[in-house]
From TrEMBL:
One of its GO terms (cellular component) is Las1 complex. One of its GO terms (molecular function) is endonuclease activity. Pfam families: Las1 (PF04031). GO terms for biological process: maturation of 5.8S rRNA; maturation of LSU-rRNA. Residues 414-429 have a biased composition (Polar residues). Residues 406-429 are annotated as: Disordered. It comes from the Eukaryota. It comes from Torulaspora globosa. This is Las1-domain-containing protein.
Length: 472
């Protein structure tokens, strides 16, 4: 769904006309003897009068850089020697151009180098150096360098904004793949950083665990120089959570985020993500349920199976911890979304999760009654309604799955059974069902016998001599 937004132009045709005015040399068939760049700058100023917050930065930068170019051309025609005003105009336009592109992407609590941000948006890194030179150095860049930079900036704006409708499909696919690579690298960086902070995350769990409050610490009122101080664990954890939240909000590939976090992250890090990233628990459920169905029904080897080889291991090391860290209030508020995922991926795993959630709800109700605490009526009603809805889902799933289905996860992937399932039509005869059950029993018993025969004792060889690889 594309949300509506306010723009200063009245129609798309008006914006196309502005593009032709700025880049008249690229429209030779429509160009005339009249230079329309001045008219384009006047229109941009008109847009600014309607509200600068509605004017995209790329249009504003195109007008500012073009204005500096026109000032330079005017000085050359008049033959004036002093070019300081032109250099100043160029430098200011380019500084605003770089800042407007990179500052919105600098949303992390940790300072990301500007060269990295420039690489993400496809901007040459020397623009960052030029920005630093024009901002901090005693002398402005030379006029030749500024002219070259302005030409490159206008070309970048053309390629990345004005000419967006004419990009080839191949280039868009390449940009998409490069964007995915950058996204994976950013997720891995966050997960790796969280892994390095694992001991701190566990020790200071009270900072981020569900239900905790963001306390005001005395460090917020300090006046010492931060460069001479070491960041406290409290601040490091809050900064890391802010960085993860920002990336989670901006990314559209939440499934990829969950997959990388599941593969590289550890238990404490997944608990933190569930507590602090809105919707992470639901995305995790969807990914795990989908992987489980691929493993048990499709016979495909999945990341879930590679990390947890058996159902017992999956249940003990992951699922129990997942259910215990669910926020029941959020679950009750967003149950419609949860129910849609459960209906989309029905399996013994989703049945087990629903039973575990129901048990936790019943324990929560018993503890609250034992402590005799006054609960809000609305919260109590939500939990009662949630309990009834989960019970209905359990009844539907129980008709299709039982405890014996858990053994399907332990079966090794079988290509033959998959091919038979896809080629042959399904039948409902009793003999076929009995044959399938017999085959399953045989597959369950075969790995155990083969493993016992393949056990080898590793002893030192009496006459062992080292040899290069490939030589017997």
């Amino acid at each position: 769904m594309v949300h509506a937004r306010v723009v200063p132009w009245s129609s798309p045709e008006e914006l196309v006309e502005l593009k032709e005015w700025f880049y008249g040399d690229k429209f030779s068939e429509k160009s005339s003897d009249v230079d329309m760049r001045i008219r384009a700058i006047q229109r941009v100023k008109c847009y600014q009068s309607k509200g600068s917050q509605y004017l995209p930065h790329v249009i504003d930068s195109t007008g500012q850089i073009t204005s500096a170019v026109l000032l330079d051309e005017e000085r050359l025609m008049r033959g004036k020697d002093s070019m300081f005003a032109v250099r100043l105009s160029y430098a200011m336009a380019l500084i605003r151009f770089v800042n407007g592109l990179l500052d919105p992407t600098q949303r992390s609590q940790f300072a990301i180098p500007l060269h990295t941000l420039a690489q993400r948006v496809g901007l040459s890194s020397w623009f960052v150096d030029l920005r630093h030179w024009g901002t901090h150095e005693r002398e402005l860049p030379s006029i030749d360098m500024l002219r070259l930079a302005s030409k490159e900036a206008l070309e970048w704006l053309w390629e990345h904004y004005w000419n967006d409708d004419e990009l080839q499909e191949d280039s868009s696919n390449e940009e998409e793949s490069e964007g995915n690579d950058g996204l994976i690298a950013e997720i891995k960086r966050l997960v790796q950083m969280g892994t390095e902070m694992e001991e701190m995350i566990i020790e200071y769990k009270w900072i981020w665990e569900d239900g905790s409050k963001n306390l005001i610490s005395s460090t917020n009122f300090g006046v010492e120089d931060k460069k001479t101080q070491t960041t406290s664990p409290h601040e490091r954890i809050h900064d890391y959570i802010g960085d993860c939240r920002d990336h989670w909000r901006r990314t559209t590939e939440k499934k990829l985020f969950v997959e990388v976090a599941f593969e590289k992250g550890r238990r404490a890090l997944l608990d933190l993500f569930m507590a602090k990233l809105a919707g992470f628990d639901l995305e995790m459920l969807q990914w795990v349920a989908e992987s489980y169905r691929k493993q048990t029904i499709g016979g495909k080897s999945t990341l879930l199976r590679r990390k947890y080889a058996t159902w017992t291991e999956l249940k003990k090391k992951y699922l129990k911890n997942y259910v215990s860290n669910l926020n029941l209030n959020n679950l009750a508020a967003n149950w419609n979304q949860w129910e849609a995922v459960l209906e989309k991926y029905p399996s013994f795993l989703t049945l087990w999760i629903c039973n575990s959630i129901l048990t936790r709800l019943q324990d929560h109700k018993g503890q609250s009654m034992a402590r005799k605490k006054r609960k809000k009526r609305r919260q109590t009603d939500n939990f009662i309604e949630l309990e009834s809805k989960i019970t209905a889902v359990i009844e539907r799933l129980s008709k299709r799955f039982n405890n014996s289905d858990s053994k399907l996860y332990d079966l090794p992937p079988s290509q033959d059974s998959t091919n038979l399932r896809t080629v042959q039509p399904s039948t409902t005869s009793t003999n076929d069902i009995l044959n399938d059950l017999a085959g399953l029993r045989q597959r369950l018993t075969e790995p155990k016998t083969t493993k016992t025969h393949q056990i080898k004792l590793w002893n030192s060889h009496p006459n062992w001599q080292p040899r290069p690889f490939g030589i017997l």
